[in-house]
Specification:
Elements: H1 14-22, E1 24-29, E2 34-36, E3 45-50, E4 53-58, E5 64-70, E6 75-76, H2 78-83, E7 90-93, E8 97-102, H3 105-111, H4 113-139, H5 142-157, E9 159-160, E10 166-169, H6 174-181, H7 185-197, E11 201-204, E12 207-210, H8 213-220
Domain Cyclic nucleotide-binding: 8-98
Pfam families: cNMP_binding, HTH_Crp_2
Domain HTH crp-type: 140-214
């Protein structure tokens, strides 16, 4: 299985991975498919092996708020599997996605105590990330928040180019990027234009080329 550094899968031993495989079954979703739906009750989790998903929720007004982007090696759906509550968010495939569906994940954790501790650490990290994003919404302008999300994508998915930049295959539309930054689509469009005008990035259809990552970090702060 492929995995991003630091994701759930990279923390497991070969025996633990084998146990997950034994209790799971492979599935595939196409781009735009709903993998998990907010409000549904289920005890299964998904271990991503290929492709990226967005985790999102909708406000009462119908606005989509993107909470996270997860990629290969990531685990989604673990909260409901642990406490039995309905799904707190919707998971949607941003591109063709493959993964391992593991039923009755709580039982697996009960027989693999080390994995349960690792999962607690990952859940804590997600909560800290949520707190950090709430601080960003109050402290940064829209351009700073867009720059921060682009940096996150570059650090996770960026590919070095011959010219010294970082190419990122952007899985999000401008509307989705707006939902991830807590800004309007118009504000995101203006922020991208500002970053382009400063020579920090170059944009294309579902891709971003970052020319100056350090400059982008300075603008994010």
């Amino acid at each position: 299985m492929n995995a991003e550094p630091g994701e759930f899968l990279t923390l497991l031993t070969p025996d633990e991975v084998a146990a997950l495989r034994a209790g799971g079954r492979p599935r595939r979703w196409e781009r735009g498919d709903t993998v998990m739906a907010e409000g549904e009750s289920a005890d299964w989790v998904l271990l991503l092996t290929e492709g990226r998903v967005k985790v999102s929720s909708h406000t009462r007004a119908g606005t989509e708020v993107v909470l996270a982007v997860r990629g290969p090696g990531g685990l989604v759906g673990e909260m409901s599997a642990i406490d039995g509550s309905p799904r707190s968010a919707t998971v949607t495939a941003l591109e063709p996605v493959e993964g391992l569906v593991v039923q009755d994940f709580a039982t697996f954790l009960g027989t693999h105590g080390r994995v349960a501790v690792l999962l607690m650490r990952l859940v804590t990290a997600k909560l800290r990330d949520s707190d950090r994003k709430r601080v960003e919404y109050g402290a940064y302008d829209a351009t700073g928040r867009v720059a921060t999300r682009l940096i996150e994508l570059a650090e996770r998915y960026g590919e070095q180019t011959s010219g010294g930049g970082l190419r990122v295959a952007l899985p999000l539309s401008q509307d989705e990027l707006a939902g991830w930054t807590g800004a309007s689509r118009e504000a995101v469009s203006k922020a991208l234009r500002t970053l382009r005008d400063r020579g920090l990035i170059e944009t294309g259809r579902r891709r971003v080329l970052i020319h100056d990552l350090d400059g982008l970090r300075r603008r994010a702060r």
